């Protein structure tokens, strides 16, 4: 075979391969290209949807953990504002603060007062009415101890108010008499 025949044969084979590859591309690859594009778009959309659902799931898990921890929060709140009338708890707080400040307790009486409506005519079941328990007390001690007692009542974890205190002197002793009342608050179930 001559060199020019070989060249013509190579060119013919090359042109044939080019025609075959263009035919394969036209009949097999190009029709699938649109489908591949659609599948790739769908994949991107699904991955974005998955990322969104994963983010929402994480947020839901965080909220669920917060609500599961709300029992602890309820316990902490019931120390500050008891969920029902608990006179022994309130008396224990007052007696503890008095003893801590070296005041001698002479008398203690308790009296529940009227309930304050916190709902303002709303139908919200989460808002409870507030009850007041008045503790009338008579202490003896020094003025400095009494000031420390009042500061203890003000800064105590249980919500309370010191009211109506009267100071009297005693003739036989240098100690003073302190008579007054302390209002403590609690939530009602009404």
Automatic annotation (TrEMBL):
State the source organism's domain of life.
Bacteria
Query: Gene3D superfamilies under this entry?
Result: 3.30.70.60
The cross-references to InterPro entries, in alphabetical order and at most eight, read: Transl_elong_EF1B/ribsomal_bS6
Protein name per the record:
Pilus assembly protein, PilO
């Amino acid at each position: 075979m001559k060199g020019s025949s070989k060249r013509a044969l190579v060119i013919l084979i090359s042109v044939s391969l080019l025609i075959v590859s263009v035919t394969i591309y036209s009949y097999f690859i190009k029709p699938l290209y649109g489908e591949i594009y659609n599948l790739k778009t769908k994949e991107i959309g699904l991955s974005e949807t998955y990322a969104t659902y994963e983010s929402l799931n994480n947020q839901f898990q965080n909220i669920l953990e917060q609500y599961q921890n709300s029992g602890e929060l309820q316990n902490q709140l019931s120390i500050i504002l008891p969920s029902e009338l608990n006179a022994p708890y309130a008396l224990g707080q007052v007696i503890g603060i008095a003893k801590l400040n070296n005041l001698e307790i002479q008398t203690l009486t308790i009296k529940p007062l009227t309930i304050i409506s916190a709902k303002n005519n709303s139908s919200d079941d989460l808002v409870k009415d507030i009850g007041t328990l008045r503790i009338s007390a008579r202490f003896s001690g020094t003025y400095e101890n009494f000031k420390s007692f009042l500061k203890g009542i003000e800064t105590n974890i249980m919500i309370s108010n010191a009211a109506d205190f009267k100071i009297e002197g005693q003739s036989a002793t240098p100690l003073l008499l302190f008579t007054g009342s302390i209002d403590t608050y609690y939530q009602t179930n009404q």
